[in-house]
Write a structure and sequence with these properties.
GO molecular function: branched-chain-amino-acid transaminase activity
Cofactor: pyridoxal 5'-phosphate
CATH topology of the largest domain: D-amino Acid Aminotransferase, Chain A, domain 2
CATH superfamily of the largest domain: D-amino Acid Aminotransferase, subunit A, domain 2
Subunit structure: Homodimer.
Pfam families: Aminotran_4
Largest sheet: 10 strands, mixed
Radius of gyration: 21 Å
Subcellular location: Cytoplasm
């Protein structure tokens, strides 16, 4: 019965099989890391089938996967992923940051993709074991970390468009430095309604691989216009949604004359970022200015710039943490966003508070030791 499968699956998830690599790759220089190009010695794989449920997790030497050419992940993008990090603190302990939020978001994405459910706590324990096995790969640096990439694929060998009866969940690890090759410097954005990242009723609030693959073409067009990222707009009123692969924040004096930190609401179009949530919670805890989840349009931004009401704009995400914006190309006009130095005051303060927690310099229940 389904209940028996769930019970057996849970027991199997508790019983991880560990096969250690016989040889170990050299560790890279943490100062020269390019995002997502170097991988650790081990990986986690867990298979699932409708008949038998979840199989035992395997931590094994890093290597290629063997999948059927007809599987649904390759043909119909029945696939999703997550992104989280492990950090080494000055006490040499390795920590994860708010990782249960990632697990719950991954479960939500799995439901939307018609992939099987899993126990968030059990999967997180498997990931913790993997990080523990490869803990020497966590950089000894306060500007680098170990990126964790859980991925979930439909693997049933059929060309039928349907819910898969076989799946594979795997996790790989990659030591990373700054997400952007130029480091923590302000980015320029191309804002155009020509391309849409997400729409109501779609999968924009889930971390599906297809969401990102479909964005690459627009990213290259942004570069052709002399910008580094895309500012995704939505609707006839050109609502501001996300920037590149990041959530977006506007720090300004709003229409009512209030000092406000604003970000678009989670209405099904916006990805519920862990860093986004953390920034909102930190700023509300400070209680120094209004903190809002509200709709913002390009007309709102343009008028605020004309009236000198904009203080800062920045993106947020696991990979970049906080990334300031200094210019937006919109309808042939360069809109210049105030940006003091490479990291303006609020973005700098948020970055410091978040990274101090992530690296264990500030005690917090957001951070847990591996």
């Amino acid at each position: 019965t389904p209940e028996n499968i769930r019970n057996v699956s849970k027991r199997k998830l508790c019983d991880t099989v560990i096969q250690l690599a016989q040889t170990h790759k050299p560790k890279p220089d943490p100062n020269g890391l390019v995002f997502g190009t170097v991988f650790t010695d081990h990986m986690l794989t867990i298979e699932w089938s409708l008949e038998e449920g979840w199989q035992k997790p395997h931590i094994q030497p890093f290597g290629n996967l063997s999948i059927h050419p007809g599987c649904s992940a390759l043909h119909y993008a029945v696939q999703l992923f997550e992104g989280m990090k492990a950090y080494r603190g000055p006490d040499n302990k390795v920590r994860l940051f708010r990782s249960m939020i990632n697990m719950k978001r991954m479960l939500k994405s799995a439901h939307r993709a018609c992939l099987p459910s899993f126990d968030c706590a059990e999967l997180l324990e498997c990931i913790r074991k993997l990080v523990e096995v490869d803990q020497d790969w966590v950089p000894h640096s306060d500007s680098a970390s170990l990126y964790i990439r859980p991925t979930f694929l439909g693997t049933e060998p059929t060309l039928g468009v349907k819910k898969p009866n076989k799946a594979l969940l795997f996790v790989i690890l990659s030591p990373v430095g700054s997400y952007f090759s130029m480091g923590a410097k302000p980015v320029s954005l191309w804002a155009d309604s020509k391309y849409i990242r997400a729409w109501r009723g779609g999968t924009g609030d889930c971390k599906m691989g297809g969401n990102y693959g479909a964005s690459i073409y627009a990213q290259y067009e942004a570069v052709d216009y002399g910008c580094q990222q895309v500012l995704w707009l939505y609707g006839d009123d050109h609502q501001i949604t996300e920037v590149g692969t990041m959530n977006l924040f506007l720090y300004w004096i709003n229409e009512k004359g209030e000092e406000e930190l604003a970000t678009p609401p989670l209405d099904g179009i916006i990805l519920p970022g862990v860093t986004r949530q953390s920034i909102l919670e930190l700023a509300r805890k400070w209680g120094e200015f209004k903190v809002s989840e509200r709709y913002l349009t390009m007309a709102d931004l343009r008028q605020a710039l004309e009236e000198n009401r904009v203080r800062e704009m920045f993106g947020s995400g696991t990979a970049c943490v906080v990334s300031p914006v200094d210019r937006i190309l919109y309808q042939g006009e360069n809109l210049h966003i105030p940006c003091e130095g490479s990291l303006p005051p609020l973005a700098s303060r948020l970055l410091k508070e978040l990274t101090d927690i992530q690296y264990g310099q500030t005690p917090s229940d957001w951070s847990c030791i591996v």
